[in-house]
Amino acid sequence: MADSETPRTPPMLLPDAIHHAIQPGAAVLRLETTRSREGPLDGAWWPRTHDIEAELPALISALTEYLGPITRVGVDAAAWNALPTRLVVDGQVVHLDSDPVGDDTVLITRGHNDHFALLVVPPDTAADAAREAMARAVRADNITQAAQILIATTPDPTDTSPGPAATSS
User: Fold this and answer.
1) 7 phi and psi angles, rounded to 5 deg
2) Looking at per-residue confidence, does 80 or 35 come out higher?
3) What is the side-by-side order of every strand in the sheet holding 70-75?
């Protein structure tokens, strides 16, 4: 079978089993690709667990590759099992701040004052909802806050309808 005939996952989509295959400590991350940074979010992160010491190093390593050295991370301490005051990631000290940003956002600081806000998709989110939330967060025209994106993309557990029905023309 030639490479052109090999079935491929559509670009920019995570396979359904991604969250089960990804072990704690691997970053599932999407970043906005525009230079404008006008919206409320610059990207999205889907950690595997609520263990920040296991999850954050991979995020910091991935972000450092694209943004340069990360000096601080602001998170809501209530969303994580424990929150150290600093971590050493790839030989660099990264300070962790307990900010009341909400458990749906993480604030990344590059240098002294260059901040990036990432949507945090909860670890137990279903793959379809996580993909949708991450895609919405990185849209260049997004003006929706993180909490509203998560609400809009989380299925209603009381909704028992089978979803849109297929129709034929």
Assistant:
1) -65, 140
2) 80
3) 29-31, 43-45, 114-120, 105-110, 70-75, 92-98, 86-89
Q: What is the pLDDT of residues 4-35, one digit of tens each?
A: 454 443 334 444 444 444 444 455 666 655 56
- pTM flag (> 0.85): no
- Over range 68-83, report the average pLDDT: 90
Q: 156: which residues sit within 8 A by CB, 6+ positions away?
A: none
Backbone angles phi, psi at 148, to 5 degrees: -70, -35
At 25 the pLDDT is 47
The DSSP code sequence of 13-80 is ---TTHHHHSPTT---EEE---S---SS-SEEE--SSS-HHHHHHHHHHHHHHHH--EEEEEE-GGGS
The length of the chain is: 169
Separation of alpha carbons 92 and 44, rounded Å:
23
